[in-house]
Amino acid sequence: MTDLWLGKFWPVMGQGAVELEISLTGAPEAVAALKDSRLICGLTTAAGRWRHIHERHFDTREGRLAAAGISLRLRGEGAAAIQSARRTLAPLSIPKPLERPVGVSGFPAPTGDPDMDAAIASTLFDLRVIAETRVDRWSAALRYGQSSFDLSIDLGRAAPPSGLKTDRGAEPIAEAEIAFVAGDKPDLFELARLIVDNSALRLGAPMKTVTAANASRNLDRFAVGKFKKPPINPEAPAADALQSMIAAAADRVIRCQDLILQLRSPTGPHQMRVALRRFRSVERVFRPALQTNKVYALTRRARSIAQALGPARDMDVFLFETMPDVFGRENEPHGAGALRAEAERMRAQAWADAHKAVAQQAFVHFTIDLAEAGVLAPWRAHLHPQARAPLWAFAPFALNRALKKAYKAERLMDRTQLAARHPLRIALKKHRYAAQLFGKLYDPERRRPYMTALSRLQDALGIVNDAVVAQEVADAAGAGAGPDAMRAAGFISGYKAAEAEAAADEIDRAWTEFLETPAFWRHDG
Predict the structure, then answer these.
(1) Rounded CA separation 241/438 (Å)
(2) DSSP-based three-state secondary structure for 77
(3) Taking a C-beta distance cutoff of 8 angstroms, is the pair 364, 203 a contact?
(4) Where does residue 283 rank: exposed (0-12), middle (13-18), buried (19+ CB within 10 A)?
């Protein structure tokens, strides 16, 4: 099970048909204005209509249904009460909701899906309302290109149920959902591009679903949680794994937007950069099997975005981790205050640049293109036979290739320069992503020592890299804040230099251990 929603690019399986649905979000006033825009007025094929929808979302206190990928709701429309149940089967496919009218005493009613019924039945004594959503929905039919769509605009709020002890308050809901009905599926993504070009909207998380899923864990709708690798089938074509990982990357990038745009949370740039790096690494693993540059072109754009977010991440680490770690909470050296003030100014500038990078239309188009690559995968029309081979047959080739690049980076490394270890660190990160992607294909007992040795080596390389970055930031901040601040910056540089030297010695030991650990995918060790 997985809770990937891919920014609500949901290919919904039901009765042999596939629906695709895109969710767009923005400020409530921007979402509300969409229905009266010249674009939508020109595309509607019939007058739209309003209705009010009240939904109660059910789960256990521990979120057992959400963990199982099940959404259970009771929807009120006028006098009717409708049960809606849905479960996720794969990263890119979700069945249509199983719906039926129910009375208050008849909830939860059988869904007709034995597995889902068993999961819901196991929670009966713990089931409770975890969130309520109330929205005014405007809906209309659209025609664009060769295709027809249903557009729904939801405006309202989500709130914890009365009586539930929680730190969460009411949260606004403002989203437009475009559901593909018939025609040419790429038209859906073209329509999304057209809309974002003519409005202040962007791809977003499905607010009602995310709010309810997080409510059971007392989290707000901005919480992104840990990255969950999509399940892989060893017998399926290798290209399936690439498509799933692209979808997962799009999912993660879209989830992280609001952490940057609305919260300015330090976790935002970090999580988004990790998602972008993971996507780039996976593309590199499969690049020899792709006879097209379409996915590679996306990685170039991903790299540019990650670079724009880098300074914000570096300044967050310096202010919230490096300075407290080096100086402690008391007895800061003279000049530390001036150094911090300059670093905070630098952070504000870096965050302005990061916000701009994510807010601009080029980023919104990137998310649409990345999502299309994960959902419709037009690149699959140009595959080398390797990509059509079973995943278990492709994995050893990919792992050997990634490891070979790490060996080369180590051979070329200048051990007299701490910063020269960075290429090895990057090569090992890429190798680790490949090892994680294919890891479930192999015996855990054989895989564990290798991953442990790899982690120990990466940790040592990470300490050196963090020290180098901290020194660079300290020097830049000190140079802009006067002699006292420069002396405080020198204190940090010296502290981090000693830390890096110790880690550099550990790198050599960890590298030797890594070389001596059998590669888990090789039968000959």
Answers:
(1) 9
(2) strand
(3) yes
(4) buried
Spatial distance between the Cα atoms of 303 and 271, rounded to a whole number of angstroms: 14
Give the position of tokens 């140079």.
479
Q: Compute the distance between CA of residue 450 and CA of residue 466 in angstroms, rounded to an integer.
A: 24
User: Length of the chain in residues, anyone?
Assistant: 525
CA distance 386 to 347: 46
SS3 93: strand
pLDDT average, residue stretch 484-498: 92
Contact call for residues 158 and 211 (beta carbons, < 8 A): yes
The top-scoring range by mean pLDDT among 168-182, 320-334, 366-380 is 366-380
Check: CB of residue 391 under 8 Å from CB of residue 241. yes
Backbone angles phi, psi at 481, to 5 degrees: -130, 10
Does 6 have pLDDT greater than 70? no
- Residue range 230-271, pLDDT digits in tens: 778 999 999 999 999 998 899 889 989 999 999 899 999 999
The distance from CA 263 to its chain's CA centroid, rounded to whole angstroms, is 16
What does 169-191 look like in DSSP terms, one character per residue? --EEEEEEEEEEEES-THHHHHH
* Local structure of 262: helix, strand or coil: coil
Q: What whole-number distance in Å separates Cα of residue 270 and Cα of residue 280?
A: 15
CA dist 408 and 412 (Å) reads 6
The encoded tokens of residue 106 equal 């008849």
- Token pair of 490 as six digits: 């020198």
